Amino acid sequence: MQGGSSGIVYGGLKYQARCITDVRADAGSTTFLAGTLSLKEENEVHLIRLLPGENELVCDGLFYHPNEIWDLKSCPFDHRLFSTVYTSGEGYGASVWKIPELYGQSNSPQLEQLFMLDDHTDKIRCVLWWPLGKHDKLISIDDRNIFLWNIDPSNKSAKVISQGSADMLPNLRGGAWDPHNHNAVATITDSSLHFWDLRSMKRSNAIEHAHIRDVDYNPKKQNIIATAEDEFGIRLWDLRMLKHPLKDLPGHSHWTWAVRHNPEYDELILSAGTDSAVNLWLAKVGTDDSGPESPSGSPTRQEEPLLHSYTDYEDSIYGTVEPPDLLF
User: EIPR1-like beta-propeller domain location, by residue (predicted)?
Assistant: First the structure.
């Protein structure tokens, strides 16, 4: 294990930031979006690009955003589209935005608000895009409900086509959309993880009695997910057998807040925590892994799964993206 930090620093943010997302639709370069969280000042969205071969991050666009940004996701099929969840008066709102053509301008023009996701009456937690390819659906999650939207960015329209209720569950706090099945989504509550079938808007399975803070589907292997948990750090699960996790990784010395698979090398996992550290793991899960390998039913641990620990941070870290060169 190595300590310290060998990453590249972007110093262009004037205010605190809690959200970062990679712009996967921009195949020609490595770009990211970061959103600020300032209570008193005007907030910003930064379009950040990694200069090839120069190990330098530059700002390609800086855009005014009217409110504190609590969730930020880039559209996987159009690099100029993204969604935000933000404070709105006494509540929360969500919108899809379009980045204007920049044409080398030094002063970035304003973002174009395409549409709002305004059917929510409870606190909105996050917006989900289906990760692979073009899809005309969008998911938004609030404390008590999951909404499936039909979207048409070209006509600036969005319409709710179905809704699922959390019923007696604790409040929903986030989720992830299965890249291998556009009818499957996972949602996080304060004490469990629930899996939904979007065709019926009913829950199909669950991991109970787990204080999960984040979930991510393996982009290469079906039925495999990673969770970030308070008590157990990082756990890898097979959705076909949820009685026990496949593997445990130690996680962090305090809460493990975020977990992400590398989109190309799925055995690489990045995690972030409130211990001001970011950890890079090697977590091998074979296609023939079918559950715990010990007689006691406990998950397996690798002897040295931690490849690198980035520790030169002063504050808690709430978001990560792959590749692991840009972290907040």
Answer: 5-281
Specify the residue for token string 């989109």.
263
Residue 136 CA: distances (Å) to CA of 78, 160, 209, 235: 12, 12, 34, 32
Cβ–Cβ contacts within 10 Å for residue 286, how many? 8
What distance in Å separates the CA atoms of residue 177 and residue 184, rounded to the nearest whole number?
6
The three-state secondary structure class of 135 is coil
| pLDDT band for position 295 (cuts 50, 70, 90) | very low
Burial of 237 by CB count in 10 Å (0-12 exposed, 13-18 middle, 19+ buried)?
buried
What residue spans in the chain does CATH classification 2.130.10.10 cover?
15-133, 166-283+304-327
**CB of 112 closer than 8 Å to CB of 56:** no
Contact between 47 and 61 under an 8 Å Cβ cutoff? The reply is yes
The CA-atom distances, in angstroms, between 184 and each of 178, 203, 205, 212, 232 are 6, 10, 11, 18, 25
CA nearest neighbour of 68 among 86, 84, 46, 85: 86
Specify burial of residue 185 (Cβ count, 10 A radius: 0-12, 13-18, 19+).
Answer: buried
Of all helices (H) and strands (E), which one includes residue 180? Answer: none
Q: Are 17 and 34 in contact (CB under 8 A)?
A: yes
Residue 203: predicted pLDDT? 93
Does 102 score more than 80 pLDDT? no
Q: What is the pLDDT of residues 177-197, one digit of tens each?
A: 999 999 999 999 988 999 999
Question: Yes or no: is domain 166-283+304-327 CATH 3.60.21.10?
Answer: no
What is the third-level CATH fold of 15-133? Methylamine Dehydrogenase; Chain H (2.130.10)
Q: Are 161 and 155 in contact (CB under 8 A)?
A: no
Integer Rg of the chain from CA: 19
* pLDDT (average), residues 69-81: 95
How is residue 99 annotated by DSSP? P
Round to whole Å and give the CA distance between 261 and 128.
Answer: 17
